[in-house]
Write a structure and sequence with these properties.
By secondary structure, the protein is an alpha+beta fold. Helices cover 26% and strands 33% of the residues.
Length: 113
């Protein structure tokens, strides 16, 4: 099992979600976050408003998948998020030790679905 965390530009969210749906990755959590990377100090425009400074608006996706879906998930995120510019984002893939479905008490691969 893998836990995939992706930080992407907010305006690329819909494209990423569409790509994930195409790969049949339906279980995800999305959060609005602030962060900075190598684009530190570069002005970015978000919804017509220039944003300057160390912390820029980003979107964080968190997705738990079984091993056979991990590479498909990463590929879908890259297809949807990539613009070829600094600030396109990062993807982190971690081993997931366990998962527990609260409703049924299932564990592991079965709990992810």
């Amino acid at each position: 099992m893998k836990y995939i965390i992706a930080i992407i530009k907010p305006h690329r969210l819909e494209e990423v979600l569409s790509e994930l749906d195409r790969e049949e990755i339906y279980l995800k959590t999305v959060s609005e976050v602030l962060g900075c990377g190598r684009q530190k100090g570069i002005t970015e425009v978000y919804r017509g408003v220039k944003e300057v400074g160390n912390l820029l608006r980003k979107v964080k996706l968190e997705i738990a998948v079984n091993d056979e879906y991990a590479e498909r998930t990463v590929a879908a995120i890259k297809r949807g998020a990539r613009e070829g510019e600094i600030g396109d984002g990062k993807i982190f893939m971690l081993d997931l030790k366990d998962c527990i479905r609260i409703r049924t008490d299932e564990r592991g691969k079965e709990a992810i679905g």
